[in-house]
Amino acid sequence: MARAVTPRRKAFSTAAAWTIGLLLFFPILWTILTSFKTEAEAIASPPSFLFFDWTTENYGVVQERSNYMRFLWNSVIIAGGSTILGIIVAVPAAWSMAFVPSARTKDILLWMLSTKMLPAVGVLYPIYLIFIELGILDTRIGLVVVLMLINLPIIVWMLYTYFREIPGEILEAARMDGAALWQEITSVLAPMAVPGIASTLLLNFILAWNEAFWTLNLTAATAAPLTAFIASYSSPEGLFFAKLSAASTMAIAPILILGWFSQKQLVRGLTFGAVK
Amino acid sequence: MATQHSRSAARIMMAPAVTLLLGWMLVPLILTLYFSFADYRPLRGVFEPWIGFDNYVRFWNSSAFVESVITTLVLVGSVLVITVTLGILLAMLLNEPIWGQGIVRILVISPFFVMPTVSALVWKNMMMDPVNGVFSHVFRFFGASPHDWLVETPLLSIIIIVAWQWLPFATLILLTAIQSLDSEQLEAAEIDGAPPLKRFWFLILPHLGRAITIVVLIQTIFLLSIFAEIFVTTQGSFGTRTLAYLVFQRVLESQNVGLGSAGGIYAVILANIVAIFLMRIVGKNLDA
Amino acid sequence: MKLKHALYGATALTLVAGSAHADAHATTLTIATVNNGDMVRMQGLTDDFTAENPDITLEWVTLEENVLRQRVTQDIATNGGQFDVMTIGMYETPIWAAQGWLVPLDDLGEEYDAGDILPAMRAGLSYEDTLYAAPFYGESSMVMYRTDLFEEAGIEMPKQPTWEFIADAARQLTDKDAEQYGICLRGKAGWGENMAFITTVANSFGARWFDEDWNAQLDSPEWKEAVTFYNDLMTDAGPPGAATNGFNENLNLFQQGKCGMWIDATVAASFVTNPDDSTVADKVGFALAPNTGKGKNANWLWAWALGIPAGSDSPDAAKKFIAWATSKDYIEMVAEKEGWANVPPGARTSLYENPEYQKVPFAEMTLESINIADPGNPTVDDVPYVGIQYVAIPEWQGIGTTAGQEFSAMLAGQQSVDETLAKVQEMVNEEMEAAGYR
């Protein structure tokens, strides 16, 4: 049931969409290109777009200055760990909100979201002191917990909206068959919920990966992720555009590639029950 | 339909999430409240547990306070307006049949994956730099003299950066919503000769109401606590100091924890006012 | 199957225990440092240290200056113990030492020769005559100028210029159409950026931040004269976007040959004369920072130094590292590998007595600039504080940053000199009252 579209209209839409798409993508593209220039070419005026001597020396310099792999690995562990932990805590909560709703369900949901409005800078001191007390400063586990808590409301909400779309009758039927609660979840709900959980995982992985306040303030060396890696390049020392670009590219490349490959899931997931 | 049994089971299943969030909210909040009534300045070794409302009065009366609240609201409001408006237009465009849709969608979504620190750095140095930025090159190409973005139009610059980061998010949610719109209905309207503007106003926009609310709600939550973008670009100068940034300056730069904590409480109050305002609208929309 | 699991478990346990065991012997030092050229170079040379001390592993946390300050201050004020060595400056050292947060460095060993540290540096990094941070490099500020442009214009730079001379020369050398600017000065907001510079200008015009009873003096005629001078000069002869130019931005401009003069840190001399990075390497001359004949030059004193927080688990290993990084041997090692012009300057007397180093074109002017700077007596009139380009009180970071933003906004043309000074005056008094000085 495709809409009839004149070729002219399609050509026009295509041109417009590509122009806007390229404009939005341009800063990223420009950064990636600059990362392959020499410092001198990076400040050349007018700048060359593609026809310059491609070099990878900036990546070498950046790697020499900081051990990229360790930062990357920490980012993976922290973002992955907090997301998985968050899902484990959120699934039961979202399940019960979706299938055993009470008068207060909506209030609880909104209250959960409102905890995200606590300004991080305002509570840094207390959290820092608590972390010292618990001895978890600069540990991955500490960050995993904090990032899990930060993103938990979003996870619960996303899962809740998915679960709500699962028809209740199916559960009723399962219950009639005498399925226990746990079986209900694993054998009936889980298969239907997998796509929803997958996109929740994805979105929260991205949010945790990009979180820049807590990850920077609660780490030093051992647990420092890519957000800390980039913090050593945020001020120039002489000519630095190409090196900055290389460091930036290294910091965003993993998540960008992950995002590109899974954009279908992500797009499907980003509904928050917005679609009726 | 829910039995007593399943009710209590539900309660147990909610318990971990609710307890954790309650702890995450209350413990720091109570400590912050405690500090906000104290004269706590670690660099001087001063800690006096009770000085009444001094910090609150001082923070309220400081010349920067009102300004920072206004800056915060302008920043959040502008970004919301820009992302929602452009998001709707872009979503409608992406909903049209076009060649290379998959690639265009990847291009549009990409800014969302860039961490805030990096996007601030990239915009500051690669785009908006008055000497070597791409914008300056473009201006020069057209014979205009380069514009010093972060000095001459600092707040606008930060709004552009933040809007760039959040436009993909808005677009995607709105796109999913548009895709779910009954295309037969649209076609019928088109055949009936309803002009595009009318179709948009009476058919599409009402359908998007819920999606827009979600975009506004989620973005507001993130935008109220925006930090990295300001820290990297202007460090709060030229009237870009938001309330969150002012609190940061008090607590971390001046190391006046008591005063900063009072500011933090004000920020919580502001967030709650905005939240109540939002919840009113969202709550209504979520019922549907 | 079960056995296999048990085996895995046991292996994992041994691994954990093993690594914990190894940790007990090997010491890991976490070092917080700033991302500037000299520090990054040091990171590259640490093999020399770890070869001698195989039981010490070094972990680097390299951060941009503002982030570094925030992180280390936060950590030391809460006794977080995340770092074993911190890179701090002359401003932090005496304040933190007074709180008992730093480990005294009076026992770095015979070989270290603490007496060799330049007296001005030593004084600035001590509290009650005990050294609390060892200088990695030190700096004052001076005039760097383009000898070729001066020759062309037929002007001669005296060894001790006045502000009047500098202003005239800057206006003569400016040709905005050719992107040639007479003078590049700091405008970027920050207590370590524009405020460092503006405060030295104010000092040389006879202004001061506080009178002896801690009353802010921003409403004095001297301040107005100094700030008007700075603002006018930058408007007439400065580069565009000056309000966001800090040290690095100006360095960049000078290296590209766009500035006729640049008054900034003496360490910049080695960058602008380095032919690899600078297009004007062989055309740079040096002069003392200007004055107005009132007895104070507009030059500052600063050192990046290494200190050990009292919360460190391994102060002894940290001392070993500091003794290595700030030693004479380290300087010689850099000289051997990178040439004398690239050694960390401004820390040791022996460096300036070294005939090899005396051949470096900026060595003499650097030493002379450092020697005139007197943090204990920074202004024409008496003041209750120590510090030339800063006021060594804990509240200064906050005051300096806020004031810096106002001056930066002034330079950007958003407010007048009078408005700016009035605002800063009010803000400073507010802060000082809050801090209990008045």
Features:
heterotrimer; B: 288 residues; mainly alpha; two-stranded antiparallel sheet; 76% helix; C: 438 residues; alpha/beta; eight-stranded mixed sheet; two-stranded antiparallel ribbon; 19 helices; globular; disordered N terminus
Quick rundown:
The complex is a heterotrimer of chains A (276), B (288) and C (438). Chain A has 276 residues and is mainly α.
Descriptive report:
The complex is a heterotrimer of chains A (276), B (288) and C (438). Chain A is an all-alpha fold. Chain A is built from 13 helices and no strands. Chain B contains 13 helices and two strands. The radius of gyration of chain B is 24 Å and the shape is globular. Chain B starts with a helix and ends with a helix. The longest helix of chain C has 24 residues, at 2-25. With 438 residues, chain C is α/β, with parallel strands linked by helices. Chain C has helices spanning 2-25, 37-44, 47-52, 65-77, 92-98, 119-124, 147-153, 163-173, 194-204, 221-237, 247-255, 268-272, 315-325, 328-338, 349-353, 355-358, 363-372, 396-411, 417-434, and strands spanning 27-34, 56-63, 85-89, 126-127, 130-131, 134-146, 181-184, 259-265, 284-288, 301-307. In chain C, 55% of the residues are buried. Chain C is built from 19 helices and ten strands. In chain C, the strands form two sheets. In chain C, strands 1, 2, 3, 6, 7, 8, 9 and 10 form an eight-stranded mixed sheet that branches. In chain C, strands 4-5 form a two-stranded antiparallel sheet. Chain C is globular. Chain B binds chain C through residues 41-45, 58, 62-64, 130-131, 146, 148, 150-152, 231, 234-239, 241, 249-250, 252-256, 259, and chain C through 66, 70, 73-74, 77-78, 95, 99, 189-190, 240-241, 243-244, 253, 394-395, 397-399, 401-402, 404-405, 408-409, 412, 414, 423, 426-427, 430-431, 434-435.
